[in-house]
Amino acid sequence: MEERSHRPIGGLLLAQQAAAPDAIVETLMVATAPLGATDLVLYLIDYEHIALMPHPDVLPHGERPEVAAVDGSMAGRAFQSATVLAAQRGDTWQVWVPVLERANKLGVLAMNVPVFDESVEAFCTELGLAAAYLIMASAHYTDLPHLLRRRKDMDLAAEMQWSLLPPLSFTSAGTTLAGLLEPAYEVGGDCFDYAVNDGVLDMSIFDAMGHGLTSSILASLIVGAYRHGRRAGLDLPAIATSADAAARSFPGPSMFATALLARMRLDTGHLTWMSCGHPQPIIVRRGNTLPAVQANPGVPIGLGMLGSVVGTLVEVALEPGDGVLFYTDGITEARNPDGEYFGEDRLRDLLGREHLAEVTPQEVTRRLVRSALDHAQVRPPDDATLLYLRWDAPHATG
Fold it and tell me: Would you put residue 214 in left (φ > 0), alpha (ψ -120 to 50) or beta?
C-alpha cells in the first residue's frame, strides 16, 4: 500500500482490474486516499447537457448530493471551463475536477481535501483524465454510467441511437469536433459518425425518414454501411452508393435518409463534402458566416432508383479558426407556437456570435440546440442534430 500511495494513478488502474465494474466511485477513492479526500461525488452529464447527475445517492455522513445545473453551479463551471476549481470552506477545500477524455466532457468529480495547492491541483487534473478512461471502460461492462446520465425515461429508438454514436466530442492536432442530438430521450432518426485515419477526418450526419423505431433501425443500417465503406477505403461517392444499396435492401416500404458526407485533412484543413438530399453545411470565419454554397445534391440515400445519390463534390480550403456547422432540418424547422420557424438566418446569426465569443465547439453545439428548443417552447416534431467542426491548424513543432 505504501508503494501504491506514491503512484495513485497506477493504483487506480490496478484497482480497476479487480473491482466490480459498477464500483466506480469506490475505485476512484483508491486514487484520492493519499490526498485525504472525503465526500467524493461523481457527476455525469445528462443526455440533454443541461444537468450533472450525482453518484452515489448518499454520502457516508448521510448527505444527499443534489443534481448540479450546467449553468449556475460550481460543478457546471468546472464542466464548461474544463478546469479544476476550488473554494475554501472552513478548514477544508471543496474541489471540482472536470472528467475529460480528449475534448469529450463526461462530467465532474467533487471532493473535499484538507489542503489545496499547485501539486494537488496538478494531481486533480490527472485524476480527471484517468477517471474518464475508467468510466468509459466500465461502460462496456455495466449499465451504471448510462443510467446515471438519465433524468427521465428513454424510449427504445433513442436507446438504439445513442448506442450507435461515437463520443460526442473529439480533438486532435488543432481540430475539434462536437455533436449533439435532441430530443435526447426520444430521438429516432438523426445520427452522426466520424473517424480519424492516417491524418484524415471522415464525418457524416444523417436524417432518416420519419421518427421512432423504424427510423432508428434504418439509421443503424445506413451508419453500418457508411462505416463499412469508409473502412474499405472508398471515396465519398462510392460510400454513398454502397449505403444507398444497403438502404434499398431495407424490408417493407421504401425508406430513405438524407446525408452529408465529408472528409478533411487534419494538417491542411482541406475539406471535401457531398450532400445526398441534405442541407449544405455553414462555414463561419472570424464571426461571419460565408455565403451558402451552391451545389447540386444527390437524391437521399435509399432513393437511388429515382436518380443518383452522388451530388456535387464541394472542396473548401479552411483557414485557421474556421468553423463548419453540419445540421439536420429539425434545427431550422423548429417552430414556435405562432408558427415562426427558427430558420437558417437565425442559425447563422447565432453561430457567428458564438464563434466571436470563442467558446468551445461543445458549448457552441449546446447553446445552438438550446436556442432552437427555447424558440420552439415545446418538443419539436422532428429530431434536431448538430455536428460542429473547428479547425485551428496543427501547432508547429520543432
Answer: alpha
All three cell numbers of 178: 462536437
How is residue 118 written as a grid cell?
499547485
Measured distance CA(42)–CA(17) in Å, rounded = 20
DSSP code string of 113-130: ES---HHHHHHHHHHHHH
Tell me the C-alpha to C-alpha distance, in Å, between residue 288 and each of 61, 327, 376: 53, 18, 25
Domain topology for 156-391: Phosphatase 2c; domain 1 (3.60.40)
The answer as to CATH 3.40.50.2300 being correct for domain 2-148 is no
The alpha carbon dihedral of 23, 24, 29, 31 has a sign of: positive
In this predicted model, what pLDDT tens digit does every residue of 52-109 receive, in sequence order?
999 998 888 788 999 999 999 999 999 999 999 999 998 999 999 999 998 899 999 9
Do the domains 2-148 and 156-391 sit in the same CATH topology, yes or no?
A: no
Show me where the domains of the chain are located. 2-148, 156-391
